[in-house]
Amino acid sequence: MNRECMTSKEMRGCERGAEGLPPAAKIALSLIFRRFAGLSFKLEHLPKAAEGRTTAADLRAAVPALLRHRYMASARNSWGERLFYIPQEIADLLQGEWMQPKLEPVSASEIKLIQEAKRGLALDLFRSLVWIAKHGIPVTAKGDIYQRALAKLSGQTALQPEDVTGLGLGYPHQETIPASTAVVLDLLLDMELIIQAPKAWQLNMQAIAFWLEQNVDGMNAELYRRIQMKYVPAEAGLQHFVNAMSSPVFVPGEWYSIEMLIQWLQEERLLRLDPPEERRSWLWGWLEAMCGFGWLELGCHDAEGRAFRWIDQPRRLGVAQDALHWGEDGETAESGFCVQPDFEIMVPPEVSFAFRWELEAISECIYADRMSVYRITRESIAEGIRLGRSWREALRQLQRSSSGVPDNVALALEEWGRELGEPGESRVFPRLDGSLPKLPEVGGPNGNPLSGGSGWIFCGEDRSSYRLFDTGLEREELFPGLDQVPAIWLKTVRSYHSSTAREMVSQAMKWHVMLALGIKGEMYEYLPAGLQGGADWQVTGKLFSPNSSEGRDAVLTPENWEIMRLLLPEIVAED
User: Fold this and answer.
1) Per-residue model confidence as pLDDT tens digits over 428-439
2) Nearest alpha-carbon partner for 227 in 144, 124, 154
3) In the chain, what is the straight-line distance between the N-terminal and C-terminal CA atoms, in Å?
C-alpha cells in the first residue's frame, strides 16, 4: 500500500472531527469497529456488524461520511475489489475514547513477579546494528546466513526465542534461525535499516542515521506500531485484545488482572466467550513478547490469577512525529554520560543512540541495559583506529560529557594514540554523517526513510498489494439497482398486490433495509431475513414496535399488514 499510516496533521484533524461526526456515523463506526477492528471488509460484509435497529443498510449509508472524516480508508486489492478498513491510528483512538477497560488495579502486595521486563527492543536492535557494522552478515551461495555469524548476532540481544515463541511466527529458515533473532532481523529489514544483498546483507546508513536520532520513546512507539501491524493475526478479537492492552487507562507500574481484562472484552462482545485453546495461548504469548521487548512485566495472584503491569508503555505515535526527537529544540541528550577516572563511561538511558554509535567505535561495551557501561582501554583505542577513528576524535567525543574528562584518561588517550598512529584510508565502521557512499535511497513518498519494506515475518492482513482509493461512493454503489426500483416504493406508504409486496420484500433483503409495515393501524419496522413459498408466501425476520430497540422474531404473510414502504436510509451528510 502506498501509505499505511496517517500524518500528524491528518491525525489532529481527525481528532477534531470526532466531535462533529454525525450521530448515525458514530453508531455505524462503533458497530463496524466492534465487528472488524482494523480488518478490511467489503460492503457485502456489513450485515455481520449490524445490530438491533441499525441495519447493514444504515452502516452502508454512513460509509461516505466515515471516509470523508478519515475514520475509514478505502483501497483496491490486486484483483480490483474495493475494500474498507479502519486505520490502526483510528482504532487506537476509538479504543481510547469509547472502549476503555474498566479495571481496578490489583494491590502489589498480592502479586508474585513471574516474568521481568528485559532491557528493551530498541537496545537490542542497536546492539545488533553495531555488530553488523563491525562484522557484516555474510551469506552462503544459497543465501543462508553462516551459522557462526548467526550465533554471534543472536548473542547481541537480551530477547530470547522463548519470549516470542507464543506468537507462532512463521519465517524462512526456521530450523536454523532462532525466533528472537528472526524478529530482530525482520524489524531491521522492515525499517530498511539493513538490506538483503546476494553476497552479504548491507547497512542502509541513511535510514540508520534517521533511526538513531529518535529518542527511546519514539523508537518504542514505532517498533510497537510495526509489531502490532505485522505480528497480530488477522482476527478481530485478537486485535481488540491488543488494542485494549495498550489502553491509556492502565497506569504504568500498577498491576491489573489479565482474567478481568479478558472478561471485560467478552462482556463487551469484543472477544469470543469460548476462544480456541490456541488463541488463548496466543494471548499469553503476546504478553510474554511484551516482556521480552522490555515493556511489560507479568505476575500471578490468588490461586490461578495472572496479572500484568506496564513498565514502559509505548506511546501511540510514529517516528514522523516531531515529538519523538530528542529535546524540544532537536538537541540530543548527549551530555548526560559520565567519564570516570577508572576509564569507565556510565551511559544513562537518555543518552542518544547516535552518540552511543560513536562510543561503540572507540570503547568496549561492558554492560548494556537501561544503564550501560563502556570502558576505554588501549585495545579499544587500537580497534577504534582500525575502524577509522583517531584518538583525537575519541577525546572530542568524551569531552561532550557534562562532568568532563579526567586528566589521567585524557593523557592516556594521547599517549596511546601517539603509539598506535593514525587511521588508514579505509573506514571500516560507518559514520552517521553521510561521509560514506550511500545505498540507493529508500523510503516512501513523504521522504521518511523508515516508511518501511516488508521484512520476512507477517501474521496480519497482507495489504502490500492494496492501492489507496480515495474516490467517494455513489448511491448506486451503496445500493445496487437503485435506479431500477420504482420511486413510489421508497416514498409512499400504501397497499400493494401480493406479488408486488413480495418483490419489495425481496429488494429489502438484498439491501438489508427495513420495511415500514402498517399492522392493525399501527406502524412497525420489519427487517426481513428469509422468503419462502410461492403464491402463498411468507417472510421471516425481526419485527420492531415503535418504541423498542430490540426486535422479536416474526413470521408474516402479506395478509398480516395493510400498507408498506421500503425504508432506504439517507446517506449520512455533513452536520
Assistant:
1) 889 987 654 444
2) 124
3) 32
